[in-house]
Fold Aminopeptidase N.
Amino acid sequence: MSQPAAIHLDDYQAPAWRILSTRLTFDLAPSATRVTAVLTLEANPDAAVGSDATPPLVLNGEHLTLESVRVDGRALASDEYKVDETHLTLAALPASCELETVVLIDPAANTALEGLYVSSGMFCTQCEAEGFRRITYYPDRPDVMSVFTTTVIADKANYPILLSNGNPVERGELDGGRHFVTWQDPHLKPCYLFALVAGDLVKHADSFTTMSGRDVALEIWVEPENLDKTQHAMNSLKASMKWDEEVYGREYDLDIFMIVAVNDFNMGAMENKGLNIFNSACVLANPDTTTDAAFQRVEGVVAHEYFHNWSGNRVTCRDWFQLSLKEGFTVYRDQTFSADMNSAPVKRIEDVAMLRTAQFAEDAGPTAHPVRPASYIEISNFYTLTIYEKGSEVVRMVANLLGEEAFRRGSDLYFARNDGSAATIEDFISAMSEASGRDFTQFMRWYSQAGTPEISARGNFDAESGRYSLTLHQSTPATPGQAEKLPLVIPVRMGLVGADGSDLALTLDGEALGTETVLELTEAEQTFVFTGLEAGADPVPSLLRGFSAPVKLSFAYSREQLAFLMQHDSDGFNRWDAGQRLALAALEDLMAAWQQGDTQASLDARLLAAYRFLLQSEPSDRAVLAEMLTLPSEAYIAEQQTVVDVDAIHWARKTAKAQLATALRDDFVALYHANEQQGDYAPTFEQMARRSLKNAALSYLMSIEDEEGVRLAQAQLAAAHNMTDVRAALTLLVHSSRTELGDPALKAFAERWSHDPLVMDQWFSIQVTRPQADVLDRVRFLMEHPAFSLTNPNKVRALIGAFAGQNRVNFHRLDGEGYRLLADVVIELNRLNPEIAARIITPLTRYKRFDAKRQALMKAELERIRGEKLSRNLYEVVEKALA
Ligand code: 0A1
Ligand code: ZN
């Protein structure tokens, strides 16, 4: 087998053929579905062609059995075309013609979940990025846009509901108990936005009146048992539609908008035109089965997919290198939406915490890539935190540099100019540039340079002259294939906090700037001198407020300064961040003690005092307080280390928590009671904040297995007010050292919820994240559980993903058993579902961050995987990891 080849951005060429219309007929049967495609073709006058003859028509197609080919009604003999494993090629076609192909496909055997497949007895599709080529022969690239008419034929009893994109235009009965529906989508779209669903489904129907007064039918289609879990998604959809009208001036453009929930899905959801298909985990929600975090995820994902109708569908991507054009922008849109719907500071804290752990780790690892990669082997491997989350941070910087009004003018211009076409990142940035008059030449480096920039900041206050000088130095570490980095445009929002805790007035180069400003760092090093400060001001800089750029910033703060900022910084994000920095310093002390064999070390008294202050003052914002009472995660601590010492990190965090709990026990008990539930559950952010505070308090109490804590946890579990509280209590009991607390609770939980796959996912995750050393046997045991299945991505994530990604001490066991388990699963998934295999392997690919012994063990497992016949997905990841 030849090795998979890389595709390069620089090789882009316009498509040789255009498709004026696409007519599809699906005759559905699980193991033999017949797909007839009629394409109206036209040689593309804009394409680069060498001679007068029309260029060959090269169509993608994989896992298809070709039955017939006709051109303008004439059946072709088999020597009139060329067909192989990946393509159908036709030469010497007239410059405009009609091509009909008939193929057979096997949806029931499709465990990769790309193209048309069967999930829980229903047919559904996933075509992004390159799944359509598993449905029919087609130019499977996003810059070929066409109008689609789709007829779906199926057995009526088994598949009463037949859906596709656009509007239903015809339906009827056929012989043999079959029926059909024809759908027409008037909007131009690339084939990755095609969708089809057929099954025995019920709908939650509602409607929305758009800003121009049109009524849109809203339908959420689910299996009958899930109809009581659709209200939250419907509310979120209506809120998203309204928000996009108000904030971006974007109105929905069809008469019907549908969402379908499916149980087997590789990602979160998919924005197919008019027919979004969702992983059931990202659409179904109800208080008894769903945690607050999952409610918020549903809201965010529904919004994300809806927003794609403009940022992705009306304006799509020219090629897959531009993926962040739609994804970075749409994540930015959904993050801002969620911030508007909930607590904005907490949303920002959560997003940044995720970016700083997971995305920064990706940027520092073997698969690091720019927001716009220059090459790839398998595009499915590039649905990454860098494309999505860092891409969103880049759009956020654009928005902040421009200000609200100019940014809106820029987005209006971008949509107007590119509507109905396939665009590039340059098209987006040039619209922003023209609308604002700002030059983005240097800024574009954010799209081409991989790696997380590092800023080191130094400050000096000269009391005599009243000058504070701040020097910022930037550099970006080398990443694979990119040794040299150039300086970026880095907006650093900042203020100077005076001795009394208030922001000082800033004067820079003679200009009065108020109490906060954005410094634009554009060179490797720059010094900014603030003048006119009082001699006694003694300023403490508050830097990178609101996380104004996706960078690592270091400043030699004293712990007293951090405690001070934690109390006084006027920026809520930076108050939290100061607390994280202080906690990190205290945790690093404990880790150093542990590494010297000292297990009696005490936590820095300044952190304890800061916590006491937090617990004893009246909370101004409960949601932020819950975040401030959370110690940095093990993953975040690991990110700060040169060589990750998983055991030291785990011990230090556990010890710090236990010492805080011992010293502040009564405050935590009081905090618990002050936030107990009153009234009925609602997924409002005020209630969520109370629950997270209460459960944070309980988690401290349980860290010392305090008797009162155990009693409260058991009572909370028994009261079963809602899944947030149930899951929190169950997790604490199961993660305690006392198996007699956790085991019976797990058993009862499974008995109660064995019928609900999404709840059982939680049951798996809770057990496999147990920190005790007995967990690995449990993981292997649970892989045999009847509710587990390797062909269901949610199950794989809940069990294997949670173990390898969140149970760091046990995954990194020194006998290598954790690594071996993951590698075994990866090898099986390589065959079943390559996309999931290439994602779940991630923790193994990060071996360079660990000690020599662990490195050797992890590499050995990667080598073992490499010995298999690998899918392109895994091939790319494993080769990069071992390079
Ligand atoms: N565009 C979707 C993400 C998505 C990508 C690929 C998929 O299958 C391989 C599925 C969904 C989104 O951003 O939500
Ligand atoms: Zn998206």
Observations:
- The mean pLDDT is 98.
- Residues 304, 308, 327, 330 surround zinc ion (ligand 2) (CB under 6 Å).
